[in-house]
Amino acid sequence: MPIKIGLSGAFNTNFHSASIKDLLNLPPQSKFYKPLMFKSGLGFGFSFGASIEAELSKDFSIEFRPAFSVLNGLFTRTDKMPFSKLNENGDSIDIINGKYEQTLSGSISALDLALIGSYNVMPSLRVNLGLAPSLLMTKSYEFKEKINANGLKFEDGRSEHIFKNDIDNASGFQFGIVGGA
Q1: How far is residue 92 from each of residues 29, 89, 95, 161, measured CA to CA in Å?
Q2: List of residues 6+ apart from 154 with CB closer than 8 A
Q3: How many CB atoms lie within 10 A of CB 114?
Q4: 160 vs 35, 100, 103, 108, 120, CA distance in Å?
Q5: Are strands 92-122 and 60-86 parallel, antiparallel or unpaired?
């Protein structure tokens, strides 16, 4: 039973769409943060690991692929909107057109433990099918909101809020099925 050992690495791009109703542990310091309605997002990541393949017969082999992977996602949203400039009594004294910008970035890293069977259909075609469990190592997000309107600020006097926290409701165990030809 010949055994092949190798290294693996990859760079990935992923596309997201989401309608995020609430972020846990996000302090409500701004009136604007709920609900977050991002249309699309983009993420980049990488993985590196090993490959251990055992040939069980002429046409069948099994491969174990332990790897560390990083999957990131970034959502952005900018809305043009009118803002009320208030005096010290809280009365509106002017309407200023500006932009309200939101950015949500997520960072997830995982230990992947894929087990894949491979069948040789013909000399130059193999069919692969396997299981891909993963253990999450990190799961965090950063949310930024910013008012971009000629000197206007949030009620607390800042023009930008930044919130960082863990993604509490993300399962520590992920599972998938992999396949290919």
Answers
A1: 20, 9, 8, 23
A2: 29, 30, 147, 161
A3: 19
A4: 18, 10, 11, 25, 57
A5: antiparallel
Estimate the share of the chain in helix, then strand, then coil, as percent rounded to the nearest 5. 0, 70, 30
Chain mean position to CA 139: 9
Tell me, what amino acid is at 24? L
pTM: 0.68
CB contact at 8 A, 141 and 170: no
50 close to 66: Cβ distance less than 8 angstroms = yes
Q: What is d(CA 175, CA 73) in angstroms, rounded to the nearest whole number?
A: 19
Mean pLDDT split into 10-residue runs, the chain, 181 residues? 89 72 52 58 89 93 94 82 69 73 86 94 92 92 80 70 80 88 86
